[in-house]
């Protein structure tokens, strides 16, 4: 029978990443503050079973940066994820915001940028066709305001 092939789904969180896709998670000059495998990520009141978390532990200012680097090698067509500020953030100041940027690092091209506010979810379906190296970057006061990605998935 004819028709399109069903896209292959790859979850980008946890230990199930295919070998070589996860290249780095880094940020915060004092220590690593980007965590790949996180269960029960809470974004905007919704709980996601898998995801990423970006937070800073010590010596943090208001302009920290943390990123996740994923080697897509041009083999994937889209990224589905929900971005936001983690419901587990420890800051008492709920007016603090973070910025998330999705960058095709290989080409130096920004694919998406959004200022994130507490209590909101930002679901996104991004075209990542031809992207070799993808960066998911969180910027802002990461000490108490934690960046979160709920159920990040790429499709072949």
Describe the structure.
By secondary structure, the chain is an all-beta fold. It has strands at 9-11, 22-27, 34-43, 46-54, 64-71, 78-85, 98-104, 109-116, 121-127, 133-140, 147-155. The strands form two sheets. Strands 1, 3, 4, 6, 9 and 11 form a six-stranded antiparallel beta sheet that branches. Strand 3 and strand 4 form a beta hairpin. The radius of gyration is 15 Å and the shape is globular. The two termini are 21 Å apart.
Question: Would you spell out the secondary-structure blueprint of this structure?
Answer:
Layout: E1 9-11, E2 22-27, E3 34-43, E4 46-54, E5 64-71, E6 78-85, E7 98-104, E8 109-116, E9 121-127, E10 133-140, E11 147-155
Main pleated-sheet profile: 6 strands, antiparallel
Helix content: under 10%
Query: How many DSSP helices?
Result: 0
Number of strands: 11
Overall 3D geometry?
globular
Computed structural class: mainly beta
Q: What is the ordering of alpha helices and beta strands?
A: EEEEEEEEEEE
Q: Termini, distance in Å?
A: 21 Å
Provide a quick synopsis of the model:
The protein has 156 residues and is mostly beta strands. It is 0% helix and 53% strand. The protein contains no helices and eleven strands.
Structural features:
11 strands; globular; five-stranded antiparallel beta sheet; six-stranded antiparallel beta sheet; 156 residues; 53% strand
